[in-house]
Specification:
Strand content: 15-25%
Number of domains: 4
Shape: globular
Radius of gyration: 26 Å
Order of helices and strands: HEHHEEHHHEEEEEEHEEHEHH
Oligomer: single chain
Number of helices: 10
Largest sheet: 5 strands, antiparallel
Helix content: 25-40%
Strand order of the largest sheet: 7-6-5-4-8
Length: 339
């Protein structure tokens, strides 16, 4: 699986203090410590050399000292990365607002840890951010069904739900035995044993259209993974991988979804060619349609035809005059200007 920009950034931020405390450390040792190749570490060090403080003059950049003969590295100037972060007044205020909003989501976070962090932040920033009482946050309801789901978990009761499955664009009715609430990918999920599927499933809470607590007690499962998954999407390994060509604006797809291969391409500029497995053909077609032309299927004609059919079906929902006007605008935009 290809490495994401987030993974690389986290490693590079860790590299600087690690090397600073171990001047002369071998590149081979760094590769073993961070679980990547020596070539990847060398590439990270090359990038660090052009990073530094605003202004970015030679004296502002991180000074990485490489010993080519011995294969070792040291850092003569770390641009202050090892110093504790000091927040500005605006940064402290924004972080306080975010933490207060997070604290208003019962059951989704460790509330004690959030309130502890809030107390420390408000104490440290009182001098320039004003008194703590000045900040009041009312978090928006993340999902209408959340309160009922939380109650069912507290009472260990079975739930009836009416659920929208985006990958199939379908609504189903299910009875589930709730296990826990998770927050991942920026969304709240109910992990539950689904009696319709006969196995554990994850339901995005904001896609639960209707929910009722039933009188039956929830049945405990024999085993539940204690770790919180970093992503909910899981491709179907029985479906062959598909090659997509992504425009620059769609590069996020390669980081958000698991990829089997990611290659930089010159056409389109800044684009990618990726190979990925989908949950279902319909799911992949919906993904490509949602990208509005920034993704093209290269090696699956039947899927390309499916995308074309779905696009044509969508056009039928608009008045013919609106479709003709949009087509004319596209044609005009694609016609080179004369002269």
């Amino acid at each position: 699986m290809s490495e994401t920009a987030t993974d690389r950034l986290a490693r590079m931020l860790a590299l600087v203090p690690y090397i600073s405390r171990r001047p002369g450390v071998a590149i081979a040792e760094l590769a073993a410590e961070f679980g990547v190749s020596e070539e990847r570490i060398s590439s990270d060090l090359d990038l660090l050399m052009v990073c530094g403080l605003p202004g970015y003059y030679p004296d502002d950049l991180i000074d990485v000292v490489l010993d080519d003969d011995g294969g070792t590295v040291a850092i003569a100037f770390d641009a202050g990365i090892e110093r504790p972060v000091r927040l500005t007044g605006d940064e402290a205020f924004a972080l306080t607002v975010a933490l207060r909003a997070l604290a208003e989501l019962p059951g989704l976070v460790d509330a004690e840890a959030v309130h502890s962090a809030l107390a420390k932040l408000e104490q440290a920033s009182a001098a320039y951010a004003g008194p703590a009482e000045a900040v009041r946050v009312a978090a928006a309801d993340p999902a209408p069904a959340l309160g009922t789901v939380r109650e069912a978990l507290d009472r260990s009761r079975r739930l009836w739900i009416r659920y929208y499955t985006a990958s199939r664009d379908a609504v189903t009715e299910r009875t589930v035995d709730p296990l826990r609430l998770l927050v991942t990918d920026g969304h709240a999920y109910l992990e539950a044993y689904c009696n319709l599927a006969g196995s554990i499933r994850h339901f995005r809470v904001d896609r639960i259209e209707e929910v009722r607590i039933l009188d039956e007690p929830a049945q405990p499962t024999l085993w539940v993974d204690s770790e919180v998954p970093d992503r909910i999407f899981h491709p179907d390994l029985q479906i062959p991988p598909v090659t997509l060509r992504l425009a620059r604006s769609a590069r996020w797809v390669a980081e958000y979804y698991p990829m089997e291969e990611t290659i930089e391409v010159a056409d389109p500029p800044g684009g990618l060619r990726v190979r990925m497995r989908a949950a279902r053909d319909e799911w992949l077609a919906r993904l490509v349609l949602s990208l509005g032309g920034d993704a093209v299927i290269e090696d699956a004609p039947e899927l390309s035809a499916l995308v074309a059919r779905r696009a044509a079906e969508a056009l039928t929902a608009y008045p013919p005059a609106a479709v003709a006007s949009a087509a004319a605008e596209v044609q005009t935009a694609q016609t080179p200007a004369e002269g």
